[in-house]
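fyi for ur records
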Amino acid sequence: MTPDPGPLHPSLPSAPSRRTLLQAGSLVLLLGTQQIARGATILAVRVWPAPEYSRVTIESDAELRFFVSSLANPDRTVVDISDVQADATFQKALETLRNDTGVLSRARIGQYRPDTARLVLELKGRAEAAAFALPPVGPYRHRLVIDLTPVDAD
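which gave:
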């Protein structure tokens, strides 16, 4: 038998074993899955009605990804929020809204897809919706702001 000549390049560290790579990959996947499953938590939902427009804010512990669309007959604004669950916490925050204020008639939440909550803002009439995100400032955390501006029926 010939003796083992050793590594081909003694200055380079040896490659990790397949087992080590699989264990590290499993750990990364596990951590990623837990983070995705958690998503953002809704902390508060508020509305400020005014004759010119009504503002709805959704405060959360993480930045929200969202998509806004409008539907007619009946008039409503739909906000799909990714990585959020329409759970009891979100429902309870939504119940703090005074419905039937400004252009807003009623608000409701449901689970549109496993990873997306759908907020439906039922309106008293046609309104243009504009939405944007605000970073944390002072006592407020991440906020999704939805402005509903009434559109004249003329």
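The radius of gyration is 25 Å. thats all i got for now
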